[in-house]
Amino acid sequence: MSVTDSIKSAITRGKKAFLRRVATLWQYVYRAQYWIGGLKYRYGGLAFASVLALFTATSFYWSPELQKILEARYSTEQSIEGLRSLIQNIGTALIGAAAIVTSLVLFAMQVNIERMPHGLFRRLSADRRLLSAFALTFLLAIGTATLSTFTEQSLLAPIVLSACWAIIFIIVLFLYAYRRALVLINPLQQLGILINDTRREFRIWQRRAKRALPLLEQEENADVTPSPMDSTHDLARTTFFQINNRWTDGAKRAIQHAMSFARRYAEQGDHEVSGASLNAVIGINGAYIDTKGKTFYANNPFIDNPLASDGFINDTLEHLRKNIQSGIARRDEQQIEQTLQAMAALVQVYLGIDYSSSYASKSHAHLAAGYLAGAIESVVPHNMADVLLEGQRLMGKSAQYLLANGNPEDIATLSEKIAMIACTGCAREDYRPVTMEGMSQLADLTFALLRSGNHDINFAVGEVRQDVALVVKLFLKVPDTPLSSSHSTYLGPYYSSTSLQSLRPRLTTLVNAILEADSDNEDAQTVTRNIEQWADGIYQTEKELLLEAIKAKSHFTFDVIHWIAGITEILLAVSNAAVCDDHTRDELQKHARWLIATLTWIPDDKETVTFIEHFQMTETLFEAAIDAHNRGCDEIAKEIGEILLSWTFKGGRYQTGWGVLERGLCGAAVFALMGGDERTSELLTSVEAKLSDESAPEQDIRDRAARKIRERSATLYRDGHWSSRIEMGIDHADHEELRPLLEEIAQRLSPATAH
What angle do CA 622, 647, 474 make, to 5 degrees? Predict the structure, then answer.
């Protein structure tokens, strides 16, 4: 390296080091600004008041020195008279300024807030802090003018200091009044005041209820033994709220004011304020639930309980429903989405209600979820795909909240609504993303059910499976696109085997965690039982969907076939887990056996066989058989091998161009070798039986397949990559045993083509 290059390299390194130091310095500056800003936000007002008080005290502490200076300056009565006139004029001017500022600020504030609800307008236009600031301003101005009557030579310092500090405090109060007025006309601040006032009112009622408890409590019978099934309702507080049945009037007005804000600002296009208004509604409902405590009663399906209906919650949900209708009428999608989000948030809030019984249903959360689903349904006819997408996500999220805080059966209604709205994509092309989102939410619900800590998810998971089947069956009526399959795309979130976000890859990750768990892991045991319940009866819906996909000649058939094989593999893997007990293991293997057997229902006509083999049916069955054998499930592996052989002769009857007969027999031979001599002899016997059947392939097809098998037997050793799992199996097999087996199969197919 030359000297010039060394110098350039050193300059470059120095420049980079300098820029790095500068960047580091800026990071320290930003941190300091953030820290100072936080201190200012927390303690700024206190620090300002402390500094002001300190300067005031200091000034009066030095008043003796100031007295000497002023006595020297105002030594005659004439000079004192001039000071008296100055103080009087300043006081008079300050009174006039206070009056003018008060009028202007109050007028401007009232003009800005006069369009708000009447009750809130009265509350804000009579703000105590603002009026107190102006009252204090007038008093200070009058006091300053009054000081002119006390201007004697011995009191010059206190009078001058008092006048100066009065002027300073008046200016500070003017600034405070101005900022307070800005706060009062700021809609976000108005909502904050509304929430704080409502919470303060709730705290007052809470204190009143506590003070009244001694009058309302009943004496307990000491001879009665409490039962865990007994209710723990706060009966005294319930009685108090029934006696004072108008205790929520202020809160209801607050809800009305907040909804008025939401509608008015949404109409003006200020969705930041409308969103904050809906958040205020949520906050008020949270405070209401905290105040009411253990006085909520759930719906009883057998007994009508009038206490189960809550007027405050009903009014809140009705206000939100009307806001949805207002947004639909104006086609304001953002207003609708914000209201839907508020409903979903209320579902979560109402799930926190204490019904004083672990067996009570979350009836108010279900009510809010019903309002949410109904609101989303009302949007369907109005061509708002984005709103429906958000609605699907919110329903799915709410269903998962219900699952986490209640019974699995609670999600059935929302799951059905998700499926029904997802079906709208069958009728309108611009609603196809709604179908995709619906399938994604149903996949999420299925996965959440499998991970649920509940021990009985049979009903819920069956309902979700039926909802999935409904969407798939209807969507398969839509013509499929030739290049990129719309069926596979929009139904993929549930059935795709390639997307990492779909159900099958997530199940694979979950099963891997189960396989790594210890045998005494209770969570893994629960998930294993849930998977068994999910798999119970799954073959019925998958068989129907497979036949529908074949009937529609949809490329979605590929997804269904590989999904069936993949879920079979997952069920067998779970059955081998250490946490799986004997009963669950037997059930899982039974479900896997029935699920893979759905592939035997494929029609055997030439068109269907050609269509199905296009999706590598033979390869899929071979892989399933090998996987079952590798997992030690020999009986199931043998059954899958029989299905492979059956498909080989079913598809081998026709000249399809896929070589089903020869490829299937090669795969069956490789699989048979894994089971030893008994399996190979069974294979030859089965081949002989298939050939003697009346539905056996024609002789010319047999001859061609026999030639191909003999050619493959003569070239067992191949280098390079395999495009087929069967080819890879042939390469890895014991060629000394495989060659005579292939020759024997070819001989059984076509003895005449031996040479």
Answer: 95
Query: What is the DSSP-derived secondary structure letter of residue 599?
Result: G
3-class DSSP string for 429-458: HHHHHHHHHHHHHHHHHHHHHHCCCCCCCH
> Degrees (nearest 5) of the Cα angle 245, 290, 265?
85
Tell me the pLDDT tens digit for each residue of 288-329. 999 988 888 887 766 777 777 888 999 999 999 999 999 999
Nearest 10 degrees: CA dihedral of 419, 425, 427, 430?
A: 150
Residue type at position 295:
T
Give the model confidence (pLDDT) of 466-488 as tens digits: 999 999 999 999 988 877 788 99
Pseudo-torsion of CA 436, 437, 442, 446, nearest 10°? 100
Q: How far apart are the first and last CA of the chain?
A: 75
Which helix (H) or strand (E) segment holds residue 723: the answer is none
Query: Taking the alpha carbons of 205, 210, 212, 215 in that order, is the dihedral positive or negative?
Result: positive
pTM assigned to the model = 0.82
Take residue 555 and report the two structure tokens written for it: 């490329």
Give, in degrees to the nearest 5, the angle at Cα 582 between 581 and 583.
95
d(CA 400, CA 114): 43
Q: How far is CA 544 from the centre of its chain?
A: 32
- Please, which residues have CB within 8 angstroms of residue 545's CB and are 6 or more apart in sequence? 469, 472, 473, 476, 560
For 30, 508, 575, 665, 727, the CA distances from 591, given in Å and listed in that order, are 61, 17, 11, 27, 30
Dist. CA 98–CA 133, nearest whole Å? 10
Q: What is the mean pLDDT of the chain?
A: 85
b/e map 365-394, b = 16+ CB within 10 Å: bbbbbbbbbebbeebbeeebbebbbbbbbb
Residues 591 and 636: beta-carbon distance below 8 Å: no
At 335-364, the pLDDT tens digits run 999 999 999 999 999 999 888 777 778 889
Which three-class secondary structure string do you get for 33-73? Answer: HHHHHHHHHHHHHHHHHHHHHHHHHHHHHCHHHHHHHHHHH
Alpha-helical segments (H) within 536-616? 538-551, 556-575, 582-596, 606-613
Q: How many Cβ atoms are within 10 Å of 674's Cβ, its own excluded?
A: 18
Tell me the percentage of the chain whose pLDDT exceeds 90: 38
Q: Which residues contact 625 (CB under 8 A, 6 or more apart)?
A: 637, 640, 641, 644, 671
Does residue 181 surpass a pLDDT of 80? no
